What does this fold into?
Amino acid sequence: MSEIKVLVVDDESDFVELFIKRFTRRGFSVLGAGGGAEALTLLKGVAVDVVVLDVKMPGMDGLETLKEIKKRHPTVQVILLTGHGSVKSGIEGMSYGAYDYVLKPFSLDDLVERIQSAYHRRALVGGGSGA
Amino acid sequence: MPDGGGLLGPSGPLAARSPVWPLLLGLAALAAATAGPWPGLILALAAGFVLWWASRRSAGALRRAREESCELSEQLIQSQKMAALGELAAGIAHEINNPLGIITQEAELLGLALEPVEAAQRDGSPLAAAFLAELRDGIGEIMRQVNRCSDITHKMLNFARKVAPVCQPSDVNRLVEDMVALVEREATKQDTRIVRMYGELPRVTTDPPLLRQVVLNLLNNAMQALERGGMIFVTTRAAEDGQIAIEVRDTGPGIPAAHLDKIFNPFFTTKAPGMGTGLGLAISQRIVVGLGGTLTAQSLPDAGAAFVIRLPATCGGEGERRHGAADQGTGH
Ligand SMILES: Nc1ncnc2c1ncn2[C@@H]1O[C@H](COP(=O)(O)OP(=O)(O)O)[C@@H](O)[C@H]1O
Ligand SMILES: [Mg+2]
It folds into this structure.
């Protein structure tokens, strides 16, 4: 099986750096972006399986970014990540096609598993960067 | 009997053509002729009893069969109705989305056009300041209302979307707990306690993001029913045939009997404008049916409302599967 390609999007660069370090160690191939617009630009050029997306970002927020990602790359799976989850944003996120909605702080093992299931779904719907 | 399917009707088990009649009559006659009056009477009575028993049995089976086929055709009609409604909703939503886009752009342009006035304000013109404040206010309101409209059109499109489940092995207890955890903070703020009663569940294959959407919808409704606080009981349990059941029950005001058969209709809402669009349960039921299960509601007077999701061991949408990219949201 080829490596699972993950894109992490968060306006806190410390978080992105740490994420890349930890998940690379777990065998994922990880890219980072500091915001929604940057993520969309990246997705144009690079095949990604799973996007881990912060909900609360200045400028283009997580839900807007999610909408655009699902519009342009419907088989890419998006996991929303949030420090202060609200029911409203959860409902909105799920209805815009997010795969999962995860509250911060998260455990590494837990998120690893969720990324793997998201990747599994991506393979089922006929996407997949390795294909 | 209103139709030809009755006990004695042309297709019933005791129809004239049926071999049961000559058999029983012959048996009674034979008994009376060969064995004297008493055993003959007994045999005839026994034959009569068998006849009575057989007719009761087949009547029961028939009634059940008719009920089942009724339910099935009702569900079929319902899903056809929903599909037609969905198309209508999608058509309207698309039509409304275009002008909404233009309104948004114009409002943004108006904002830009205000720059010279801003310059005048910086130069100290009180008139410009008042004018600006008023206009910014107006533009803000336009944007808020546009957002409200697009929220509704988004939900309409979500309702109209074909449910095309992508099935994966899933840990449903964990999935339910995720949604409970998401709701819990806001629940605590409104004095609502969530009681978890998770049973041991067999592993099922289902569509996790679709199921999350449903569970979250039910929890959200329960929260809205408990504005003044109360309890939400979230139960999961194994059911017959490897099925599972998820129940969300609340101690709110419940649902009046007259509403019970309407709450799953699209756009049925008892909530104030802006609070509810009446699409949550319609979407949820479509999803659950698409997963091969059922979503039902119960309400006892003054005992709150209960919603039960039943799911099969393996998810299967009947005829709702689409090929290829079955996996998009409906934000457009
Ligand atoms: N837990 C509940 N308690 C009482 N009434 C409920 C509950 N859940 C749903 N309802 C009723 O069903 C209606 C439809 O619900 P729904 O489809 O979710 O739309 P909305 O929440 O936008 O009104 C609600 O307006 C309400 O009258
Ligand atoms: Mg609702």
About this structure: Chain B is about 55% helix and 15% strand. Chain B has three domains: 3-66, 85-160, 168-329. Residues B 221-222, 225, 250, 252, 254-255, 263, 268-271, 276-282, 305 surround adenosine-5'-diphosphate (ligand 1) (CB under 6 Å). The longest helix of chain B spans residues 37-113.
